[in-house]
Design brief:
With about 350 residues, the chain is α+β, with helices and mostly antiparallel strands. The chain folds into two domains: about 210 residues, Hypothetical protein, domain 2 (Endonuclease III, domain 1), CATH 1.10.340.30; about 120 residues, Alpha-Beta Complex (Nucleoside Triphosphate Pyrophosphohydrolase), CATH 3.90.79.10. Helix content is about 45%, strand content about 15%. The chain has 15 helices and eight strands. Strands 1, 2, 3, 4, 5, 6, 7 and 8 form an eight-stranded mixed β-sheet that branches. A hairpin with a 3-residue loop joins strand 6 and strand 7. Helix 1 crosses helix 11, helix 8 crosses helix 11 and helix 9 crosses helix 11. The chain is elongated. The protein starts with a helix and ends with a helix. The structure holds a DNA duplex (11 and 11 nucleotides). One of its GO terms (biological process) is base-excision repair.
Length: about 350
DNA sequence: AAGCCGGGGCA
DNA sequence: TGCCCAGGCTT
């Protein structure tokens, strides 16, 4: 009943999405990685950009990481781009450039977990593996009235088992697409369209007025505050850039030399701090301007950033590892995080 | 098992 | 504000 209704609804209501009319595992992989934790509308332009730039997994493998990150800029979760590059190289070198369709093989690839392996194998080869993503958790928990937390180990097992049982009676390609689309369009997180839902008579949550209580999630990410002071150092038309090599947010992307403090400092406190003393040692330095504090919210941290525009001669580069000069008109070739991009727009 | 990893849209 | 998005990796 459930499977039939969802599939029937899908055939009538599905969106026309470009990765649905192909069996090409490379194209499906591209779309699936882009869509991890990302709405279709947000990922769509990136999908087109990447597919146009890299027609095959071999072309993807031959690109530089800098170029891939630049193309990925603005989409977030940049480890996806780095992992894709590593995976593309493995497929070029160890799979003769042929993208695998097999679930077990896919699972071994970097950046491909159970969800993505199920998606690629079912969409490209109709393999019988159930997709269990945020849409599926929501739809199943509501329809079947499951109150187990979806972010617990036991919950993940329970939902996976149910998803595989449902798939047993279904056509993998069609049904996997259908459940996710149903969750995304009909059984939305907030204000789902229950009034017009073909499942409402048998939906546990709807019948028990629990739609807004399901699915249950018990971990909430705690947010850490960080205070960034970016030193935008100029010498003529040249600017200092910094490659972020540390194991931190925005790894392998670029920003400016950074003084990070655990607490919010006033401008004068920062100027008097040891960090700043170290930076201006043996140099002539003029602070041209200091920006307002910019607030940048990530899922797990809040960054308060100030941009210090500084003119400087005789910079001590070794005080900041990974720092190098670039011409102003070359900055746009480097992948930068959103907060830096916003600043550069007014540069 | 818990923490980490972006950015945007919505109520 | 808080929550969620076609999740996965590291500790």
């Amino acid at each position: 009943m459930f499977v039939e209704e969802v599939t029937k609804w899908y055939k009538i209501n599905k969106r026309d999405l470009p990765w649905r009319d192909t069996k090409n595992a490379y194209i499906i992989w591209l779309s699936e990685i882009i869509l991890q934790q990302t709405r279709v509308e947000q990922g769509l332009p990136y999908f087109h950009k990447f597919l146009e730039r890299y027609k095959s997994v071999t072309e993807f493998a031959d690109a530089s990481e800098d170029e891939i990150l630049k193309l990925w800029q603005g989409l977030g979760y940049y480890s996806r781009a780095r992992n894709m590059h590593a995976t593309a190289k493995i497929i070029k070198n160890e799979h003769n450039g042929v993208f695998p369709c097999n679930y077990e093989t896919l699972l071994k690839l970097k950046g491909v977990g159970e969800y993505t392996a199920a998606a690629i194998s079912s969409f490209s080869a109709n393999e019988k593996h159930a997709v269990v993503d945020g849409n599926v958790y929501r739809l199943l928990s509501r329809y079947f009235g499951i109150e187990t937390a979806i972010d617990s180990t036991i919950g993940k097992k329970e939902f996976k088992k149910l998803a595989y049982e449902l798939l047993e009676q279904a056509e993998p390609f069609l049904y996997n697409q259908a459940v996710m689309e149903f969750g995304a369009i009909q059984c939305k997180p907030s204000s789902p369209n229950c009034a017009n839902c073909p499942l409402r008579l048998n939906c546990y949550a709807y019948q028990h007025e629990m739609v807004d209580k399901l699915p249950v999630k018990d971990k909430r990410t705690k947010v850490k505050e960080r205070f960034f002071n970016y030193l935008v150092v100029k010498d003529g038309t040249k600017v200092l850039l910094n490659k972020r090599i540390a194991k931190d947010i925005w790894q392998n992307m670029y920003d400016f030399p950074l003084i990070e403090t655990a607490e919010r400092l006033t401008e004068s406190e920062l100027i008097q701090s040891s960090h700043f003393e170290k930076f201006k040692k043996n140099t002539k330095l003029y602070i041209k301007s200091v920006s307002d504090e910019k607030k940048h919210v990530l899922s797990h941290q809040i960054i308060y950033a100030r941009f210090w525009e500084i003119r400087m001669e005789n910079t001590l580069l070794d005080e900041f590892n990974g720092v190098f000069w670039v011409n102003e008109d070359e900055i746009d070739q480097y992948a930068v995080p959103k907060i830096v991009d916003n600043y550069l727009k007014k540069f």
